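Work package 3, deliverable 3.1, input record:
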Amino acid sequence: MIRVWEAATGEALTCIEPPADVNDVALYSDSGLLFAALEAEKLGVYFVPALGPAPRWCHFIDALSEEMEEQATGALYDDYKFVRREELTALGLDALVGTSVLRPYMHGFFIDARLHAKAASLSQPFAYEQWRKERVAAKLEAKSGARIAPRARVKVNAELASELQRARAKATPAAQGASAAGSGAEGVAADAAATGAAAPGASLLHDRRFASLFSNPDFAIDTAADEYHERHPHGRDRASAAARRADASEDDDDDDGENGGVEEEEGEEGEEGEEEGEEEWAEEGDGDGDGDGDGDGDGDGDGDGRGRGATAATAAASEPRMFTLAQDVLVGDGSPPAASRVGSSASFAERLRQTNGGGGGHAAADAGRRPHGALEATFTAGNARPAKRREAGAGGGRFRPRGAAIARPAAGRGGGKGKGRR
Amino acid sequence: MQRGEAAKVYNLSSAGKALPGWLSAKRRRSLQRESAAGRLEVVQNLQFPTACARVKVSADGETLMATGAYPPQLRAYELRELSMKYQYHFVSDVVQFQILSPDWKKAVFLLSDRTLQFHSQFGKHHATRIPHFGRALAYQRETCELLVGGAGPELFRLSLERGSHLSPLQCGCAGVAALGVHPAHGMLAVGTTDGTVQCWDPRQRRMLGSCRPFDAVDDASGAAGAAAAAAAAAAAAAAAAAPALEVSALRFDPRGLQLAAGTSTGQVVVYDIRRATPLRVKDHMCKLRPGPTARGSRSQAPASPAQVRPADRRPQVPRRGGAAHHLHGREGDPGVGGGDRGGAHVHRAAR
């Protein structure tokens, strides 16, 4: 479509509709001839007598145009607006139907744009203001959107809050997984959250009952506490990942040589990936897996998993809690990627020695020796003295393996998991 | 001529399908004879194998030069003879070209592989390359500089007198889509892909001022009050659909007092260069594309004298970022043309 307007008045002079899209237009100066580069094989050549005479080199088209007079074009509408009948009703211009002001076309009418503008502005007198406001609002929003969004301030346990929010943002199954993680991560609200709605992150954040968790400093999670580390071996694990890796490679060099080292590293990486994938297990499973591995791998680390369990149990003296003794027996039973175990166990051992002098070493060894399908055990804290648990680990009657009543089957881990409950 | 009546337009090319090339000469002749009336050709063989991209007339009015595909080629027509003078094939598409001399003898071609080819009578004279993909060409006679803009903030300058690159102008924009040179004093207008028009002084190489035609377009639609909210929504939708709001065509009027800017959304904004606010905003109504039903009903309708032509007939993807490609001036009038892919504007002289 090539449109021609009067420069002085802005009125439409004519429009040319070539059979194909227009790429370029060239006017032949001082004449009414114009060439159009079309998206077609042939170029368009148009002669508009109203623009000027024919050029000298093709004077014959003046005569030719006289012959072609009959094919001349008709009326031209510029600045007309198409309105449907409903729009016409909305504008209150129904009465004009049938008059020359409206020209029926397709499923509506053509109306002079100025008349339409007038009618529209009369029918909605505040439209312009509204439009202005909207535009200003949009601009402001665009401006503020460029800034870094301010976050809702959570004074206490901000990390947990952000974690919960992140978990909520994930898809529903992922959110459920995160809920388990969250419940494990956080002591007081854990059980309530686990038994709560499908998105416990949200419930935890917005539930009035847990409001003080994010406001009262008394409920602040002490990340330096040993109990916290019991539950979150991750934090320290990841922090010392590089160190562990270095340890592991050294150990492997000692044992197997270069190739062994490489393999172990790969194994460790795989393990870590697995942990990432299954968040619900990661919280509980990681430390215990380490414990198992130690049980098989080397005597020094044997005490760790056990000892950690013991500290947790003793610390939470008043409340019943759940945690696992043996997370995955497959790992413990088969040849574990010992590289990570050694490193992590070393750090745990240190920690353990600080706390209770490695008292639970034997128990952990027992746990490591437990057969497939062994227990996740639930203790009441009062019973969970290290000595007693040693009996339990040895297959004493206090713990009933309940492989059938598995609440959360270890899909990814492969090892059967029982949950002993008292 | 009364208002509302379109000026007559005569189609001199029977534009559209050419006779297929595989026809035998005999059949072709018979076909041509059959439909002689429908196959009027003012210039013989004014066609390309597939499509034509750019067309220009030399300043002396003797030669018509057009580039097209495929293969990428230039065809020059000697208008006095009403036939083709020569053709030249390129290795890649011609993005834009500029005739440097009054006649056809010197021209420069901006190719899609970033090459600038300088041609003389015998053919290729020299070729050089520019760092960015070029899009717009302009030649400043006053300084004898060739200006090339494209996908980048720099506007590259080539001194054709010294035969060397000069330091580029830093426009501070995402890209240059159009260039215009003032016919009297050589002021340079740069249409950017950011949707602004910048005016540069070629002597001091500094920006004199800039304006944003899209503001004018918005204001025009807002001030009209015609379902303002709906218009804003439509504008927002258009903005969302078309990511780039760019000034895709620029042209000074031959007297140099007016500057017309064509936008990628199909508007033409005419400025007086002494005023910040536009003189006139014309809309191509590119948004008014008839849907399939509308087209069907139109094709069924008898040929009515009334021609209502919402912009473009084909539903199409906007191409190469720019819709309004070209603005065209004519000696003696404030010529303006805003070409859409399927559209061009011509402003006619006030008589």
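The mean pLDDT of chain A is 61.
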